[in-house]
């Protein structure tokens, strides 16, 4: 974990940048090996992203949940916890929002907030289970939250199929209009891209993340436990409670991500064969963002953009879109093994240094 | 069907499901005993399952017939080793965070396997169905024993290999100098280093063995259960294997027991639905069962201090 913190608190901008470039190169090599044209592929990726207002809007739609899940992973990391369960908390958030959105019929100013809060609390409590097990029973949060991911998936499927199902279909009934949080004028402006308030709230969450961790006493304790739990304990902080709290807040971020997928984008929840994957991508986003709120925002833009643009790659250059997963995996790999990156860079840096010497 | 018959089949299905878990958990054991956390087991299984599917297909094309699955099986181990080399280089030589690299292995394996599948098979997300996979062996004479014969002595060759490897691993780990050194490196690397044991070497061996064995685990699923590779061929078995490793207290025989337990939970999923009363229970609860059991077991039964003490810590000789 020591190492983990070091990577995450690294404010250096160089390593993520080099990692991104190396990641893109790895992707290009994979495409060359498969007999595809990487330049055509990358340009069709960019083309897909920026060609029409609709695509740009949809890219923002794809980026939004990654901001939430990236924040969720980062927040737990700051307290020294690896929340790999963001995936499950995301799904629980979706489920909470769907339950309220489908079953209740209220005026919009109560309905939407209630659905949002319910989903957020579902996510928070789901993460809280892993936090509690860690604090009370010493269960490694990585293992417990992996298990909770699967349980969340099947539990949600059960709830949707049993209580919310649209007759004869593999999805829930549609959420009442009063709970939806779409932004109509933006939808018109972007030719029906699915724009919603969740994006705005995601950016608010970026700010909240900063304020909670660096401008409150709570946040100080959270970070202290992350830095050195023994010292925190000695200073009179309740480490166990802090862990559970940290997981809860992390889960709230994750849950919110799920909430807006339902209330902003789809308007119903399907019976899923596998979980949507935003939580796992959140780990990538958090890592690339160096665990800082702004970094997470930028990381989400990069990964969301790549993932959304990958459809353009397969359309424009015939490349299987999975190549983007290789790029993303490679980028995190290079961020994590920054020793390797430095080793790669050494000849270049030395050359520059020696040139400088010559000039002098 | 009478009760004995059902029990026999249940045991047999348990063996089928737990085989892949045993291979993979054994792999995880070698890595973690040497002090390297391996969260990438899932990804290594994916790679193994993919490599087995492709290599077996090629072998069948080449007219190798019944030998083909064996070639796929071995190819999976080699491919797993190559993949885990990535893990080893970054975590041991460059001291990258082991958990993060494990996550990377998971992302990369699935991405690369699917990408290659689509590249190799004209955009199809699934490898062709294999004509030649492993068939169950009937051990002569023993398989004629009533009940036990059908339950235990009629099984895939992979099952016997996995069990044999577990026993061999037990002896390697606790009865050979190699095992002692591997454990020393995982418990107290600086002491091991002081007496002249190369921490780097033993950790490389541990991680690479985990790649080979997890590859075999993935291959087992392709070659005995699914007969092809697709995005959902491996869905969580690697993580279950990790849980079995912890539940089995990092002991080769303990983890076999744990893997059998999870295999049973999985087998129950398909078996319970045959009974009248069980049909009232929604299928989702059976799907959840292995994961819920894992959680309960981890929260309840396992002590805290069983993990190798240097687990997860990169070894930096300069910090001794």
TrEMBL record, chain A:
Annotated localization: Cell membrane
Entry keyword set: Cell membrane, Membrane, Sugar transport, Transmembrane, Transmembrane helix, Transport
Matching CDD domains: TM_PBP1_transp_TpRbsC_like (cd06580)
Native organism: Paenibacillus endophyticus
PANTHER family per UniProt: ABC TRANSPORTER, PERMEASE PROTEIN, GUANOSINE ABC TRANSPORTER PERMEASE PROTEIN NUPP
Membrane topology of this protein: Multi-pass membrane protein
Cellular component terms per the entry's GO annotation: plasma membrane
Origin: domain of life: Bacteria
Any GO MF annotation of the entry: transmembrane transporter activity
Listed name of the protein: Simple sugar transport system permease protein
Pfam family of the protein (one): BPD_transp_2
Membrane-spanning intervals of the chain: 12-39, 59-78, 90-110, 116-135, 147-165, 195-213, 247-266, 272-289, 296-317, 323-345
Keyword check for Metal-binding: no
From TrEMBL, chain B:
Membrane topology: Multi-pass membrane protein
Chief location category: membrane
GO cellular component: plasma membrane
InterPro entries with a match to the protein in the record: ABC_transp_permease (IPR001851)
One Pfam family this sequence matches: BPD_transp_2
Keywords from the UniProt entry: Cell membrane, Membrane, Sugar transport, Transmembrane, Transmembrane helix, Transport
GO molecular function: transmembrane transporter activity
Transmembrane parts of this sequence: 6-27, 39-61, 67-88, 100-117, 151-173, 204-226, 238-264, 285-303
Subcellular compartments: Cell membrane
Name by which UniProt lists this protein: Simple sugar transport system permease protein
